[in-house]
Amino acid sequence: MRIAELVRLPGDGSDERGCIVPGPTPPTPYLHFAGTAREALAFYGDVFGCSVQLHTFEEFKRTDGPREAIAHGYLKQGPVRLFAADVVGNDPPFRCEGMMFSLLGTADPSTLKGWFSGLSEGGRVVDDLQKRPWGASDGQVIDRYGLHWLIGFEDGENG
Q1: Do the strands 101-104 and 124-131 form a parallel or antiparallel pair, or are they unpaired?
Q2: What residue ranges define each of the domains in the chain, with the CATH number in brackets?
């Protein structure tokens, strides 16, 4: 068993079953999409194997955009925390430069390889997932929605 499986960090927002519990919410990216929040969250839910919660403008009684647009959505009980919404008016949509979402050692190697493959579909592999001279394996991908991911694991982990 790895240390990460034995020790839970305070404030990670979940219990031993992965369920969200009351308390401080850890920092969570909140992305604004130009009308594609529903599709983007569904994509991430598929990649990370979790459900998605969506709330429309109509549900939130917003009249500043299309009724079916997403006012707030998020990944539920998954390994990655992510919020998203559709932008309206002059609000700028999400654009990523000079930042990566790091998933280094966050799951077993076979799961990380699956995430890399899933995020690559319709995206662009920046650097193949491969073993490095220092013994670890990692790679980078920019997914179809523009998020830049760094995924990797240490040598000696099963996978």
Answers
A1: unpaired
A2: 27-91 (3.10.180.10), 101-153 (3.10.180.10)
Q: How many CB atoms lie within 10 A of CB 72?
A: 17
Q: CB-based burial of residue 142 (10 Å sphere; 0-12 exposed, 13-18 middle, 19+ buried)?
A: middle
Strands of the sheet containing 70-76, edge to edge, are 30-33, 83-86, 70-76, 51-56
Of 108, 106, 110, the C-alpha closest to 149 is 106
Is the pTM of the predicted complex or chain greater than 0.85?
no
Separation CA 7–CA 13 (nearest Å) = 14
Query: How far is Cα 145 from Cα 95, in angstroms, rounded to an integer?
Result: 9
CA-based R_g, the chain, Å:
17
Transcribe 12-31 into DSSP letters: SSB-TTS-B-SSPPPP--EE
Task: For 58-67, write each residue's pLDDT tens digit.
Answer: 999 999 999 9
